Amino acid sequence: MNELEIFKKKLIYRSNYRGSKEMDILLSKFVEKHIDQFDEKHLKELDKFLDFEDEVILNYYQHNIVKKDIDKNIISKLFKNYSV
Predict the structure, then answer these.
(1) How far apart are the first and last CA of the chain?
(2) What is the radius of gyration, based on Cα positions, of the chain?
């Protein structure tokens, strides 16, 4: 298994175990759907996105409230338009 595959597995794990069941479901489904389409640059952007607290991500997703610097990149755009 190469480093990129290991990194993907870590991102999948992080998206599955967030703390709240709602975010576990939302983020894990999003990551599962898109992770194999992402190149290394996008995986790093996803890693940075997953660093945000659940509340920040949820407010961005539901209400378009950005309290912290969520980068306007392909990850945030895909997530904002994602529906389970």
Answers:
(1) 30
(2) 12
| Structural contact between residues 22 and 81, judged by C-beta atoms closer than 8 angstroms | no
70 backbone φψ class: left, alpha, beta (φ>0; ψ -120 to 50): beta
Give 37-59 pLDDT, tens digit per residue: 999 999 999 999 999 999 999 99
Q: Distance of alpha carbon 60 from its chain centroid, rounded? A: 12
Segments making up each domain of the chain, as ranges: 3-80
Q: What is the pTM of this model?
A: 0.92
CATH topology of domain 3-80: DNA polymerase; domain 1 (1.10.150)
Q: Rounded to whole angstroms, how far apart are CA atoms 33 and 37?
A: 9
Whole-Å CA distances, 28 to 22, 41, 67: 10, 19, 23
CB 77 within 8 A of CB 44: no
Six token digits for residue 66 = 């950005």
